[in-house]
Structure formats: C-alpha cells, structure tokens
Amino acid sequence: MIIQKTIAHMSRGYLLIGAFAIAIAACNNRSSAGIKNEEGNWQLGPFSKVDSVNPVLVPDSNSTFEDPILNKEVRWEAKDVFNPAAIVRHDTVFLLYRAEDKIGKYAGTSRIGLAWSVDGLHFKKNPVPVLFPGNDEQKKFEWEGGCEDPRIVQDENGKYYLMYTAYDGDKARLMVAASENLTHWVKEGHAFEKAFEGKYVKQWSKSGAIVCKYVNGNPIATKIDGKYWMYWGDTNIFLATSTDLINWTPVEEPAGTLKIIFGPRKGKFDSDLVEPGPAAMQTDKGILLLYNSRNVTSKGDTSLREGTYSAAQILFDKNDPAKVIARADQYFITPEKPYEITGQVNEVCFIEGLVQYKGKWLLYYGTADSKIAVTVAAHSR
Hints:
Blueprint: H1 3-8, H2 12-28, E1 48-49, E2 65-67, E3 72-74, E4 80-89, E5 92-100, E6 110-117, E7 124-125, H3 139-142, E8 146-154, E9 160-167, E10 172-179, E11 185-190, E12 209-215, E13 218-221, E14 228-232, E15 238-242, E16 248-250, E17 273-276, E18 280-282, E19 287-294, E20 309-317, E21 320-327, H4 338-341, E22 349-357, E23 360-367, E24 371-378
Parallel strand pairs: 12-18
Antiparallel strand pairs: 1-24, 2-3, 4-5, 5-6, 6-7, 8-9, 9-10, 10-11, 12-13, 12-14, 14-15, 15-16, 17-19, 18-19, 19-20, 20-21, 22-23, 23-24
C-alpha cells in the first residue's frame, strides 16, 4: 500500500468541493458550540461543527490485521474509533486515530490507525494499524489494553514525535514514538523512564501536549529557556521538560511531588478533571492550551449531564509555561449531537488533533468514545 499514490489519484474536483464544503459549513453552523472570543481576544475560535460530514470517521468491521501477539487475524477497528492526532503532510491532512477491536478484555485492545484527506473532511483509511502492541520491549506496558490517544508534533527538521498512552490493564503510561513518514514508527519507550531513577514509570501517566509554534498549519515543537515543555495528566495538569522530545522530566515541587499547573474548578463544567488536548500553541498573547474536562453535577455545572466531557481554553505566560494568565469561564465545545451524546461513553467531546489547513483551523475530536468528528474555525493567527 503506497499512500502517496492513492492521494495523487484523488480528483481535483473532489479537492475543490471539499474546500467549498468547509466554507459553507462554517457559515451555516455558527450556533454550534461557539464562543465569542472575549477576554482579551486570546482564545481560538469560534468553532463550528461541520454537520454535513460529521462524523468523519466511523468503525469498520471489515478491516483486518494479523496480530503479532495473538498470531491470528483480528478486526482491529470493529468496535470504536476516536481521539485522533492530526498533522498536514504533502498538503494532505493525516489523522492518527485510536481504534478498538471487540476481543480484548479491557473494552477491546486499542491500536493506532492512519487516515488521510485532501479536503480535511472526507477520509481514506490505511487498511492496517501503524502503531500497535507487539512482541517488543514495550509489550509489558501495552498488552493487552493497547496503544491509545495519540498527540503529534514535528521537530524543526520535520521528524514526527507521537506521545501516546500504553495501557496494560492496570496503569496508563505516557509513551513516545518517532517517525519520518507517519507509516513506520519507532517506539522510544516510556517518556519518564530516565527521570528521577524511573519512579514515574510505576505511576499512572498520560496525555502529553507539547508546546509548539504552528508553522504552515503544523505544530512544530519549540524550546523555551533551552528546553521543550509538555503539559500532561488526566486529573490535574502537570508539566515536563525535555532536550530531545524523547526523554522527559516531570516538573516537581521542592518536596518531590508533582507541581500542579492547573486543575478542576468547583461549580463549573470542568469540576472533576482536566486533560490536555492538542499540542499547546505559542501565540503573541502567550501559550494557548486547548484542554478537555469532565463535569460531575454534585460539584460542578448542574446544567450539564453527569460525566459530560467538554473542552475549553487556557493561556500561559509565553516565557513561563507554568504561569496561568487567563482561563476561559466557559467551554467552547460540548456534546450536542446524537453521535456525541450516545456511544461507548456517553456525553463526550474529546479534542486531540488541530491543524491549520486551507485557511481554516480544523479541530478533530472523539465523540462518545465511538466516532470522530471535526469542527472548524477561521484562521486568525
């Protein structure tokens, strides 16, 4: 299978229709989970869900894969697809998405699939996953829960780095993989393996969003004070630093505990947990992080259903990634559509993939842990 040959044979008419569809959708769907971009005009958006094509990716029970651990053919994306990373390569949008089979004992084993599009709306899938548990050094972390929830960046030389979650049935662990072409990935191991004598390898960790500059629509990792920075965590948000995008050191308090950068808020939509979305974005206002959150009505927003996942935005000092300078009082996306409300996990919009493509911001998100959708904003920075 040669992806670029497939892309080359997609028609020019299809590309033009897709670009036109984005423009029409953005104009006709302004009421959908938008924000007014107040509070100093630092937020990205407003975003508009593209109802004409959503969901853009759904499960496929016909896709098969020879699993190297089970030594048998499995229908690797038969159950659910969700939580994608996004990147632009050769003027094409690529999604690296989480897919589950129906046979793993932890709600299905997860693997990372690859899909691509020349308009950002209509996708073709690679027939087999590109990152998955195997008989390798990471099997002890990845089997049989799998490889989950990727987030992608590039370095200044164009190499791709994927932060993903390994799940062994007991703990989630934040892992790193690297690639030159998106199809062949080298597993680099646990992100925190070399930090503090490996103490964080034994602890729960996930969801790494690296601070980047978005160049030509793509997140390019950039250093602050001589280091790369990453927001991570799925209860509170923490920080880690690196010099090579592979080996990361969590930021600690003097007492040796993790430094909390920000956390849930009582009485609001993000009352129960917060979790990073796509790569954090350096802007002229500061470092912008789009983040996911969960609500519990007993301590949060009583207008939302129990367990609702919504997404919001927070701004940090451009020279100090730990210093919050602004935080949105309201979410900019929340479950409204049937495919967002009902699924493997109800009431979920979970953002992970952001690119700037053909004059628009395209934000890809998992819906009810079952499908993938897109929401669009005008390109303003």
